[in-house]
From TrEMBL, chains A, B:
Belongs to the PrpD family. GO terms for molecular function: lyase activity. It comes from Cyphellophora attinorum. Residues 269-432 form the MmgE/PrpD C-terminal domain. Residues 5-244 form the MmgE/PrpD N-terminal domain. PANTHER family: 2-METHYLCITRATE DEHYDRATASE, 2-METHYLCITRATE DEHYDRATASE-RELATED. This is Cis-aconitate decarboxylase.
Length: 460, 460
């Protein structure tokens, strides 16, 4: 009954609690910022160059698009490319219980379809987004952790089904059609962890988005799959569970009882989550030093010691990263840029920052000590400056963790910071305002122009 | 080294043995007939209706297309739709050691890309097809049988990688690009056996085709994946092996030593392969009765007894099928139409034939007896006619099996028979001639017009 249960719940749901709606608005806002921010990354550009000759009727915005020629694509390609862009900086959202990054696959499909369709209200979009995220995260919980352990990238394997259900909701599919959409998405299992560190990692949420959209499009025309796609002996859950016993019934029984989207968190820094406590502490030290002594030369910090959770050492102890991608796996880099600039956004992970003399010198002063008495989101930092100043900083829970969620203002700063690099400062501010209000508009396509770069020759 | 080994082999191969080439020509010919034959099936039509609003520049033929408006699509959609059409009648090819239907995913991607690209010779196409089929079937052997047993549809899970490599060969990718194409295809794992009996079964080879093509398009532009995509601890083979231990190295060592395409077989009847011996026997009886007594009323056959392999009873004992799809799982139906009409092609599996009084009456006269001393491709049939005639027929190996491959003439008859229902008799003959010569042309796009229906108002 799992497939039918999920389909019926998705088709029937229209009211969501206020707290759920608010969490979904934040998830969508953060997604839009990340997709614009990732739109001019080389990975995204390669994919756009490869696929633009095959675009169909351009109905759907490529978020952050700079070229007036290719500011839109058909919805399947828009879903794919926006999905790539949203994940490419490792800066998106995290459902901590499953480490799913839920918004990417689902919002990419949803925005592409909503704009193509026209007349979709912000309210309808938010409800559909919630349904997609609940689908993806409940299914993820049902197959966690074996599914992830054997090597599947759980963001995309569950994301395709979430995207299909979300788009199916906008299409107003009936129960039967929705079951078939779930089935059609369930046979498209995308994403292997082996690809982490390559362009293909961000292909995963992109392809999940286009696969989910395709599933909904076919189901809408009566294309059939199985009514037991998820739960059958040889259905999705058993096949992808990786030796574990899927807990489909338990998890689907909690649909509408607990809301997974409310547990969605947002990355404050564009790198692996285990580095975040150290970066948080470094950023705090920067501001403390600056407030004590505004003219202090930060390059004269003498030594920095970090006591960290053992996973930090295991996963991010790259001492001498060579480029932006490698620097995401270096706690030394994150700490160094945090101390020097007081922030660690995409600009601080650019190739030329990674290879700058000042940053290299600071990285070399950072030492790490593994301490298994610490929590994963905890760190101790101690710093000594040439002028005799010593700072001790204990971060009990890093920013962005479940205990210290990003505030609305912090999300806005993150959005504006990363989108400024694409849209310019004014464009970024306008895009941010539009993205915060998308849930309230009558017709979401009216806000999409704010998410594209301006045609050449137009004043900024 | 598996990924690198496969990539290097595919990039380097240019000469293939004569017997391999001949087998590939037959596989391509049979594929084209099946894809044209399946083009007006309701499943294919639903998919075309759903997706035609999103087609890009129409460069690639939809095989068998009747509408002048939609006779072509962009290559990704053409690959998807032709892949669906090629499999929808369950009438395609079978690599018996893995029960992969190899041509569908690979040829669908290859034809779509070759026509879009232009100037591809028939010879280059055949080499690329061989490379794709070897890739798909060697990988299939490496993960057989556990992969299939747990529920994956092995045709499409291996077919996406075969399609990527085949298209990559036409693109003249280098070793690095080819490795990344393999990796990009490997993360798109399509197809669950749970979908057998629904429209989604034939979606699988279609989606494998478009996924493989997409992988090659991205790799061509420098999009990266992993150089150990197939063999890594969390790479493709280990993740999809279903608990078995993949034998990648063994199988890839046999690349170019044994040619899987030479073991490809072709279905003589559009239904599950276990029914084929019984249908073969029934068709032979029809012709024997007709030659003995041309005017004999076949409806006065009194009784038919089949001694069959136990799998026939297990899989195809549906006594009273209600439509064409169900009749594919009825040995009674296959036997009845074989006796009455001397053939069992798509026309004999049409809904109105399945429900006709004459066919129902004949089905009711057929009894089956399970006999575990028989081989899977063996059958004993005994028949008694009202006029006292008795026929005993022992088929030791059914037509289409490894022992009794379809002859060139039988393949032609199959092609013309199924394509006549789409293109008319003259069109079918012309398409058949073109398909037999495709390997020899300088530029394959010159033959594609023969594979489309003629615009309305044109004389047949």
């Amino acid at each position: 009954m799992a497939t039918r249960t999920l389909a019926h719940w998705a088709v029937s749901l229209n009211d969501i609690p206020c707290s759920t709606r608010s969490a979904a608005v934040k998830s969508l806002y953060n997604y839009i910022g990340c997709a614009i921010g990732g739109s001019n990354h080389p990975t995204t550009k390669k994919a756009r160059d490869a696929l633009s000759p095959f675009f169909g009727k351009p109905t759907s915005t490529l978020l952050g698009a700079q070229s007036p020629c290719f500011s839109k694509a058909d919805p399947q390609h828009a879903a794919l490319l926006n999905g790539i862009a949203s994940h490419v900086h490792d800066y998106d959202d995290t459902h901590l219980a499953t480490i799913i990054h839920p918004a990417g696959p689902i919002a990419s499909a949803l925005l592409a379809w909503a704009e193509c369709q026209g007349g979709v209200s912000g309210q309808a979009m938010i409800v559909a987004l919630v349904i997609g995220i609940e689908t993806s995260c409940k299914l993820g919980r049902a197959i966690w952790p074996h599914h992830y352990d054997i090597g599947w990238h759980i963001t995309s394997t569950t994301g395709a089904i979430g995207a299909a259900v979300a788009v199916g909701k906008l299409m107003e599919l009936d129960d039967e059609q929705m079951m078939h959409a779930i089935g059609l998405a369930s046979v498209q299992v995308v994403g292997l962890r082996e690809m982490f560190g390559s362009d293909t990692k961000s292909f995963h949420p992109g392809r999940a988005a286009s696969s989910g959209l395709l599933a909904a499009l076919l189901a809408q025309k009566g294309y059939t799959s199985s009514e037991k796609a998820l739960e059958a002996k040889r259905g999705w859950a058993n096949v992808v569970a990786g030796g574990g016993v899927p807990r489909l019934d338990d998890l689907l029984a909690s649909l509408g009882q607990t809301w997974e989207v409310e547990a969605n968190s947002f990355k404050p820094f564009p790198c692996g989550i285990v580095c975040h406590p150290a970066i948080d502490a470094a950023v705090q030290c920067h501001h403390e030093l600056r407030s004590k002594s505004p003219a202090l030369p930060l390059e004269n910090i003498e030594a920095v010691e970090l006591r960290v959770h053992p996973l930090v050492v295991e996963l991010t102890s790259k001492e001498n990263p060579q480029d932006g991608l490698e620097s995401k796996f270096s706690v030394f880099h994150g700490c160094a840029v945090g101390l020097l600039s007081g922030k660690a956004g995409p600009a601080q992970y650019a190739d030329d920052v990674v290879t700058s003399r000042e940053v290299i010198a600071m990285r070399e002063k950072v030492k790490i000590i593994s301490d298994d008495s610490l929590l994963a989101d905890e760190v101790h930092l101690s710093l000594r400056h040439q002028r005799g100043m010593v700072i001790e900083k204990h971060v009990a829970h890093a920013i962005g963790s479940a205990h210290v969620p990003m505030t609305g203002q912090q999300l806005t700063d993150k959005f504006v910071d990363q989108t400024s690099l694409v849209l310019g400062a004014d464009g970024a501010k306008a895009a941010s305002d539009a993205a915060w209000t998308i849930a309230e508009v009558d017709s979401v396509e009216t806000v999409f122009p704010m998410f594209r770069g301006r045609p050449r020759g137009t004043a900024r």
